[in-house]
């Protein structure tokens, strides 16, 4: 637990992020330019401009391509470039002069607005999601470096990254494991008990989406089986120029489930390899200063940013949804309010949520449009009240039915 506490303490330092614009990708990019001793300012400006151009290209590729890792670095696999909006909130995180070249590395926010209502900060509703436990498929992988806390700590870091977008409310639910058996994940539909666990005794935990995943591998490329420390062998491995003993993998399968129906909306795999230079017997721990000094830790930060970006791309233009919590005549109360961007006068479509059971008595959920709207009359921070054109009993509207803003 002390490692996990250190992780939380280091959140602000390790992610190198400032609050982002709504609907913006946080992109890391590097630009280079010839270094001129007579005008170093111009050289730096040219390198900075090229880094910003590269950030825009990478963001474009996120919108229209796929990602993979090459030589331990997350790269773009397919490029079908489209020009995006402005690059903003540029932060220089590294600057080097070597071999007559100046290299500037930045993290910048790139607008990803695609025309839907929720891509615009002034009209966006704030979607809610819970980042749950990321179990290890092979727990023994974490023994090298004592990284067991990554299962909960990864959720903490990802929730923090997502909260940088003002249109996403990301709950750190890293202690909640909805996966069950990691070897059989993902499941097409989550059981109803899983959906209600997170919401138990707490209205503020009402969420639209459940984000989970399985860490398929943390394995080193060269297994370090149990043995007595050997100074000569350890020294050889530390100085091995081919790095056969230093690389380790990080393979993650990400799942996004709809919290109202339990349906699997999206899944994606991430694969990264990078150097792990710590002694195999060292109790480094996930999220410690020593962990982030490792090339593996630095590359993992880029993976977390990539996962956050992809979640935003998948969910930004999805409709805003909220639960109905109470009905009385024509009045209806819902589990969202002004903190979610709702205001009096907003009109939301009303849906019935029906439960069916298959031959194995497994529940399946269906949303039926009542063809009626709820007009909000009063909003509070976490709840709102509105009126229907007809009596709620006529439509058979009940608690746990939902409203959707299209």
Automatic annotation (TrEMBL):
KW Aminoacyl-tRNA synthetase (keyword) present: no
Leader sequence residues: 1-24
Domain annotation Flagellar assembly protein T N-terminal: ranges: 27-110
Domain (Flagellar assembly protein T C-terminal): residue spans on this chain: 330-404
Keywords from the named record: Signal
Domain Flagellar assembly protein T middle: 123-285
InterPro entries reported for this sequence: FlgT_C, FlgT_C_sf, FlgT_M, FlgT_N, FlgT_N_sf
Pfam family name, one: FlgT_C
Coiled coil: none
UniProt protein name: Flagellar assembly protein T, C-terminal domain
Organism name: Marinobacterium maritimum
Taxonomy of the source species: Bacteria, Pseudomonadati, Pseudomonadota, Gammaproteobacteria, Oceanospirillales
């Amino acid at each position: 637990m002390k490692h996990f506490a250190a992780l939380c303490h280091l959140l602000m330092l390790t992610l190198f992020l400032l609050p982002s614009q709504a609907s913006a990708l946080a992109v890391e990019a590097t630009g280079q330019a010839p270094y001129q001793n007579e005008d170093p300012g111009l050289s730096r400006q040219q390198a900075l401009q090229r880094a910003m151009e590269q950030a825009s290209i990478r963001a474009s590729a996120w919108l229209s391509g796929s990602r993979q890792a090459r030589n331990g670095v997350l790269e773009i696999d397919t490029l079908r470039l489209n020009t995006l909006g402005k690059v903003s909130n540029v932060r220089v995180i590294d600057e080097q002069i070597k071999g007559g070249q100046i290299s500037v590395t930045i993290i910048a926010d790139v607008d990803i607005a695609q025309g839907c209502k929720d891509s615009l900060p002034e009209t966006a509703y704030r979607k809610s999601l819970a980042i749950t436990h990321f179990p290890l498929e092979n727990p023994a992988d974490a023994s090298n470096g004592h990284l067991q806390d990554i299962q909960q700590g990864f959720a903490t870091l990802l929730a923090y990254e997502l909260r940088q977008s003002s249109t996403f409310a990301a709950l750190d639910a890293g202690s909640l494991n909805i996966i069950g058996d990691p070897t059989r994940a993902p499941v097409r539909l989550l059981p109803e008990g899983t959906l209600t666990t997170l919401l138990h005794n707490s209205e503020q935990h009402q969420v639209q989406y459940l984000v989970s995943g399985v860490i398929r591998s943390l394995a080193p490329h060269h297994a370090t089986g149990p043995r007595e420390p050997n100074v000569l062998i350890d020294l050889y491995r530390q100085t091995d120029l081919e790095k056969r003993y230093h690389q380790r993998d990080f393979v993650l399968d990400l799942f996004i489930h709809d919290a109202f129906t339990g349906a699997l909306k999206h899944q994606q795999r991430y694969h990264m390899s990078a150097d792990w230079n710590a002694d195999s017997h060292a109790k480094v721990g996930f999220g410690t200063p020593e962990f982030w000094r490792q090339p593996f830790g630095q590359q993992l930060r880029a993976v977390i940013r990539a996962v956050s970006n992809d979640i935003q791309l998948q969910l930004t233009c999805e409709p805003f949804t909220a639960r109905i919590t109470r009905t009385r005549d024509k009045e209806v109360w819902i589990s969202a309010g002004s903190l979610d961007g709702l205001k009096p006068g907003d009109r939301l479509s009303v849906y019935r949520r029906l439960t069916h059971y298959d031959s194995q008595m497994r529940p399946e959920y269906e949303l039926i449009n009542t063809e009626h709207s709820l007009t909000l009359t009063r909003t509070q921070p976490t709840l709102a009240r509105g009126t229907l054109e007809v009596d709620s009993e006529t439509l058979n509207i009940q608690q746990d039915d939902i409203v959707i803003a299209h």
